[in-house]
Amino acid sequence: MNTQNVIKIQTLLLSVVILFVSWIVGYIFLTNKFTDALDSQFEIITSTAFDMFEGEVQREKKDLKYKINEILGQDAFKQALVDKNHKNIDLIINKYYTKFLDSDKYIQNIIVLSSDNKLLFSADKNQDIDKNMLKKYVEKKSLNGFNVSNSEVSYKVLQPIYLKDKFIGSIEITINSKRIIQNLNLLLSIQTALVLDNKVINKNTLIDASDILKYYFEFQESPNFEFLKVDSQKKLLNYNKETVAYLIIASDLSKMGNKNKEFVIKIFFTGLIATILIALIVYIGFTILVKYTINQTFIDKLTGLNNRDSLYNDLVEDDSNIFIVSNIKEFSLLNQYYGLEIANDVLKQVATGFKTFANEHNMKVYRISADEYVLLSDDNRLGVVECGDILEELNDTISSMEIKVGDEDETLKVEIYSGVAFNGVNPLEEAQIALREAKIKSLPYLAYAKNLDNKVDTKNILDIKKTIKSAIEHKNIVPFFQPITNQYGEFIKYEALVRILKFENGEEKILYPDDFLSIAIRSGLYVDLAKEMLSQALIFFKDREEKISVNFLPNDFYNHEIMDRFIGLVQMYKKPERIVVEITEQEGVGDFDRLFKIVKKLRKVGVTIAIDDFGSGYANYVHILQLKPDYLKIDGSLIKNILTDEDSQILVKSITRFAGYMKIKTIAEYVENEEIFELLKTYGVDEFQGYYFGKPLNLISGVNIF
Fold first, then answer.
1. Which one is predicted more confidently, 23 or 293?
2. What would the CATH number be for the domain defined by 308-455?
3. Ordered DSSP codes for 42-75
4. In angstroms, rounded to a whole number, what is the distance separating the alpha carbons of residues 219 and 204?
5. pLDDT in tens, 268-312
6. 367 three-class SS
7. Residue 330 φ/ψ region, left for φ over 0, alpha for ψ in the -120 to 50 degree band, beta for the rest
8. Alpha carbon 619 to chain centroid, angstroms
């Protein structure tokens, strides 16, 4: 074997070793990262569970205080307490104890103490009385906390009793803490239990634990529990703020853990293949055209319910407590089997069921997509338990409907999935995440929890949403103006471009539409932003000689608030033809007939019309023939490379010739240098816009370099 072959073999072996070592190192690294990710997810789960647990404790505290006040409202009880009349105390308290038990099976005991802390009454004679606690109670103020008795954890509220400002005793009501935790398991898909204040946790010290948790604490080394995460740090305190028990939260993350393992293996095999092929493959980049979804007006035409736009507005104006999103199980199959007409009948009849249910529960109802309905409530009295009851009733209501099929006697029934969000920052997204998880787990409904949402940019969205609100409130929505010239380079027009001024540490920062516009639309802040932008731009140019061009999204024309503001501003102009309305030319303009009617109305008030971004992958010449705009703005993607791109040259020439025949003026965007300017003039372009003539500036503040 010659030296050259030896070197080749050695190089090959070295490469294999390097790749193998890299694979092992990468595998260990990613495995550790995924372990950290599982721990982070579990921290989110426990945080959510603890928050909900604390909320339920506060609700129980209020409920028990209400029951105590109901007893204290009886003057006969206070007098019996002063007289230490055991017989009357027994009669009164037993009556209320029986009444409370009828409506609440978790009530354990009612205890009455004298002013010197002696036991006068205990409704449950079999329950152990904490003698030490009675001796310690000398504060003469309301107390609440957990207590351990007979291997059970209970929750107590103790209230001092006064008669004419004189302390005459106290009353205590106890409930079984099982009620506080029983709903966490269902709504969050977790395991919960209580454990006594003991350094050793085993199946014998657990209270209200599932078999899984008991088995876990008996055999923690079992591989069955590789991805079962357990937290037992939540302390349960008694009257004296002493720890008497702990809340245990457990979540099975095996699904995510197993997927992580599979992902690690797949990613590295893919990496090996990519390493071999990378020298042979040249990836060709491509641009994805984003199609704008045009929202309908506030009423859904098919069902008569409020639609998505209405929902966005309501979310901005109202603080919702409960947000429920539901859709019909297997609706696509129903649509395929019966056809569009009957499917639409089903949607209308189901909408009637949702509307009736919403009216009965003082909720708002919407249809936001094909078979997706939303229920909204601002009732802060609704907690986890009540919401569970509402979801059960909603399922029963819809599933019990007999839906008529066409003109036949045939009827069918449908079922729904539901997702619910409580006091959410982005309630629609959160409820839809819960809805998707409910479908995956084949559950009728599921509540949103932080562990269901793996988005990492939530904080950024919230910060921008807060910035938009502040900008609207403090008039920091500012138009920047970019000049538009004629063939002689004279400024004849300006385009108004929306910006937000943000102040951080005393310094001014400019936010551009890409930073905030989509968030403003999704969060319902867009209407106020658009009205402020129009007002500042048009008022500033009212007494100037140049024309002013303002941009509109297609859906803006269907919003009464925006259009009323715009028409009012136009009426301030002696020559309204100085105002140019730019309409974005895009494939997403679905209802063209409706848009055509809007353009006709705009022409009646005297403004001129421009089609923006014409030629950006979708140029509908038929629409141009019908609209007959005053201007066509040639899309910048055709202008940027026009000096070297023959296709762009052909398209621009075609557009200018077409516009010339139609007596429509053309405007070229992205004119960056003199060469482009001179070339476009030879093509017959009428007006020009770009950095060659000037960048957008804040003219209102007096900054003007032109």
1. 23
2. 3.30.70.270
3. HHHHHHHHHHHHHHHHHHHHHHHHHHHHHHHT-H
4. 13
5. 667 657 656 544 443 343 333 333 333 446 898 889 999 988 888
6. strand
7. left
8. 35
- Band (pLDDT 50/70/90 cuts) for residue 4 is very low
Q: CA-CA distance, 642 to 644, in Å (whole number)?
A: 5
The confidence score (pLDDT) of residue 359 equals 92
The per-residue pLDDT for range 564-616, each reduced to its tens digit, is: 999 999 999 999 999 999 987 554 455 677 778 888 899 999 999 999 888 76
Q: Which of 153, 48, 115, 9 is nearest to 447 (CA)?
A: 48
For the chain, domain boundaries:
47-266, 308-455, 466-688
Are the C-beta atoms of 464 and 515 separated by less than 8 Å?
yes
Q: Which residues, at least 6 apart from 384, have a Cβ–Cβ distance to it below 8 Å?
A: 52, 55, 56, 183, 184, 187, 422, 447
* Sheet-wide strand order for 364-369: 364-369, 372-377, 322-328, 416-422, 445-447
- CB burial of residue 311 (10 Å; 0-12, 13-18, 19+): buried
Nearest to 517 by CA among 526, 509, 508: 526
Measured CA to CA, the distance from residue 322 to residue 420 in angstroms comes to: 7
- Beta-strand pair 119-122/107-114: antiparallel
The CA distance from 651 to 638, in Å, is 8
Name residue, tokens 């370099």. Answer: 705
Which residue bears the tokens 């309305």? 581
What are the φ and ψ backbone dihedral angles of 658, each rounded to 5 degrees?
A: -60, -45
Strands 491-504 vs 547-552: parallel, antiparallel or unpaired: parallel
Tell whether the torsion through CA atoms of 584, 590, 593 and 594 is positive or negative.
negative
- Per-residue pLDDT tens over the stretch 638-650: 999 999 999 899 9
* Six-digit token string for 514: 């890409």
| Architecture of the domain defined by 47-266 | 2-Layer Sandwich (3.30)
Which of 661 and 379 is assigned the larger pLDDT?
A: 661
What is the per-residue pLDDT across 362-377, written as a single tens digit (0 to 9) for each?
A: 889 999 888 899 998 8
Distance CA 253, CA 646 (A): 57
Go through 191-212 and write b for each residue having 16 or more CB atoms within 10 A of its CB, e for each that does not. Answer: bbbbbbeeeebeeebbbbbeee
Contact status, residue 316 vs residue 525, Cβ threshold 8 Å: yes
What burial class does residue 609 get, using C-beta atoms within 10 Å of its C-beta: 0-12 exposed, 13-18 middle, 19+ buried? middle
3-state helix, strand, coil in the chain (%, to 5): 45, 25, 30
At residue 364, φ and ψ (nearest 5 deg) are -100, 145
| Residues forming a β-bridge with 352 | none
Which residue matches tokens 């060469």?
675
Superfamily of domain 466-688: EAL domain (3.20.20.450)
- Asked whether 431 and 377 are in contact (CB, 8 A), the reply is no
DSSP state of 159: E
- Cα–Cα dist 436/138, whole Å: 54
